[in-house]
Design a protein that fits this description.
Layout (H helix, E strand, L loop, with lengths): L3 E2 L11 E8 L2 H9 L7 E4 L5 E2 L4 E8 L4 E6 L3 E7 L4 H10 L15 H7 L2 E2 L2 E2 L4 E8 L4 E5 L20 E11 L9 H7 L7 H15 L7 E5 L5 E2 L1 H10 L6 E3 L2 E3 L2 H7 L6 E2 L2 E3 L6 E4 L5 H19 L8 E2 L1
Parallel strand pairs: 2-5, 3-5, 4-20
Antiparallel strand pairs: 1-2, 6-7, 7-12, 8-9, 10-11, 10-12, 13-19, 14-16, 15-16, 17-18, 18-19
Uridine-diphosphate-2(N-acetylglucosaminyl) butyric acid binds next to strand 13 and helix 7.
């Protein structure tokens, strides 16, 4: 059987392949694939491939949703409810919301990937997380059974959800329902965003979207030009006691309050270890944001894993903190 190239399905641009690649454009098409026995084991459902690190060729079936579209379900004075196909490009959805004056996802402008994966990953940026706009998630499992999960049942937390747990690997998101505000409740607690917005006479959804796009384009590499998967690690949370010890040693250490302790930007920890702009073979730590690992061209997944491990080791040795990948290793 000819193998299917995944080069255009992972934003690291890794030259890997799968035995089989199946796409579907409706729930009915997915059910047909499942009934027809085409989804052979092992299988993996992907979105835009912007959070995946393939360490080898995938020895099975890759599934990808092309269920697209934004359907207005209801509207009242304050809010709208919309049902969005999991295969819709995330930023197309954000643009649509901003154009319609619907507030709730504008700080998440320009995040790569698709709507289904956004709900799996609980994407977040500039003080906002997608879970706060999600109402329900619709799924079909490998046996063709439909289910609906309310947000409170999705175990959402920082870059995590029920759908990331291993027992949910055979549950595929088909639609995500969002509630968006018609009366804006802007989220402006990220200092660089508030500062950049000072140049606008008035804060609007459009101004926020434009500003977020500008900040991202300044700091983050465009995956079309340099292979990457955004933040490679999650920002670690340490205890208050650990933090006080670190702050005595590094008085300038940036930090944020987190529900279970103090969150420290992993990008800062990595930069302090001297990794910013450094490379190991064809894999490198991005020169403008140390939390991002990049494929400088021709890197393999293993090269990127090696660099990630070297970075983790340095951070552990210098600060005693274990940083964990945000990116999913396959
Ligand atoms: N910093 C450094 N050196 C660096 C990078 C960061 O010192 O090379 C320090 C700076 O003090 C900076 C602080 O870290 O003020 C925070 O950096 P930044 O605002 O760039 O955010 P981040 O914590 O590195 C997180 C998300 C990003 C999201 C931004 C903005 C995670 C894992 N990453 O990054 O999400 O865009 O905040 O809200 O939480 C992604 O998940 O792929 C992603 C890009």
């Amino acid at each position: 059987m000819t193998k299917y190239s995944l080069r255009n399905h992972n934003t690291f641009g890794l030259d890997v392949s799968a035995e089989r690649f199946l796409e579907y454009s409706s729930e009915e098409e997915l059910l047909e694939l499942l009934r027809g026995g085409q989804v052979t084991v092992p299988f993996l459902h992907i979105g835009g491939g912007s959070n995946l690190l393939f360490t080898q060729d995938y020895p099975g079936t890759i599934l990808h949703s092309c269920i697209k579209g934004i359907e207005l379900l209801s509207e009242d004075l304050d809010s709208v409810r919309v049902r969005v196909g999991a295969g819709t490009v995330w930023d197309d959805f954000v643009r649509y919301c901003v154009e319609h004056g619907w507030q709730g996802v504008e700080n998440l402008s320009l995040i790569p990937g698709e709507v289904g994966a956004a709900a799996v990953q609980n994407i977040g940026a500039y003080g906002m997380e997608v879970k706060d706009s999600i109402v329900r998630v619709e799924t079909i499992d490998i046996h063709g059974r439909k289910a609906t999960y309310r947000t409170e049942d999705c175990a959402y937390s920082y870059r995590h959800s029920l759908f990331k747990q291993s027992e949910m690997k055979s549950v595929f998101i088909t639609y995500v329902e969002f509630r968006l505000n018609k009366v804006p409740r802007y989220v402006l607690d990220y200092a660089a965003l508030t500062k950049a917005l000072e140049t606008y006479p008035q804060i609007t959804l459009k101004a926020i979207r434009e500003t977020v796009i500008r900040i991202r384009q300044d700091k983050l590499p465009d995956p079309q030009l340099i292979g990457n998967a955004g933040s490679f690690f999650m920002n670690p949370v340490v205890t208050h006691q650990q933090f006080e010890t670190l702050q005595r040693l590094y008085p300038g250490i940036p930090h944020y309050d987190a529900p279970s302790g103090v969150k420290i930007p992993a990008g800062w920890l990595i930069e302090q270890c001297g990794w910013k702009g450094k490379s190991l073979g064809s894999a490198a730590v991005y020169e403008k944001q140390a939390l991002v690992l990049v494929n400088q061209g021709g890197a393999t997944g293993v090269d990127i894993v090696r660099l990630g491990q070297a970075v983790q080791k340095s951070v552990k040795e210098k600060f005693g903190i274990n940083i964990q990948p945000e990116v999913m290793y396959i």
